[in-house]
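Dear colleague,

Thank you for sharing your sequence with our group. We've completed the structure prediction you requested, and as agreed, I am returning the results in plain text so they can be pasted directly into your records. Please verify that the sequence below matches your submission; if there's any discrepancy, let me know and we will rerun it promptly.
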Amino acid sequence: MPAKPVRPRLNRDVICEAALELLAESGADSFSMRALGDRLGVDASAFYRHYPDKDALLREVGDRALAPATRGFTTSEDPSDDVRRMCLGVRKALLRSPVALQLTQAGPTRYPNELRITEVMLDAFDRAGMAPEDAVLAYHVFIEYTVGSAALDAPLAVSAQLRRETYRRWRADYAQLPSDDYPAIRAHAAHLYPSSDTVFRTGLEALLARLLGT
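Please find the predicted C-alpha cells below.
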C-alpha cells in the first residue's frame, strides 16, 4: 500500500509560502482561504488559528517580500543617505516580487518590515531637524514616489531585453510624429525612456535636495 503524502506542519512560514505561490498563479482578486486550504490539504478554518482573517495573512505575505530592504540595514550619521538607501532597497524588493507590489499597494502592512522602513525614514527626517508634521509629509512623499515608481516599472522589470525592445519601439513611435504638431517630442524622441533606474535615482536625488537640502 502506498504511503500517504505527509502534510507539512502548519505554521506561518508554510502558510505564507503556499499563499505566495497561489497568489503568483492566480492573483489577489481570486485568492481565497479555501483555495489555500486545498493547496495545503487542510480545512480553511485551520488558518484562523494563525491569522484573524484573510487580510492579515495577505498583509504578512506582502511584508515578508519587503525583508530584503530591511535585512542588515543599519542607520548612519547621514539621514539623507539612510533615506536614499532605504528607498532604493524598497523599490528593488518590490520589483523582485510583483505579488508584494500588488499587496502593498493596498496599504501599509503594519508588520515588522514595513514598520522598520517607516521607523528608519521618520527617524532620519527627525535627525535632519524637520518638524513632526514636515517629517510625516516627507515620509509619505518618498514612500509614494518609491512605490509608484515600482508600480510603473514592474511590467517590464522581468526582462532587460523586453524593456530595451519596448523602449526602442516607443522611441520610434515618437520619432514618427509630425514635427509641425509635436516639434519638442520629435527633437527629444531619441532620448526618451532612459533607464528606469536612472530615472528613479534622478528623482530621488531631486527630492533629497529639495526636502533635506542635500
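Summary note from our side: The mean pLDDT is 91.

Kind regards,
the structure core
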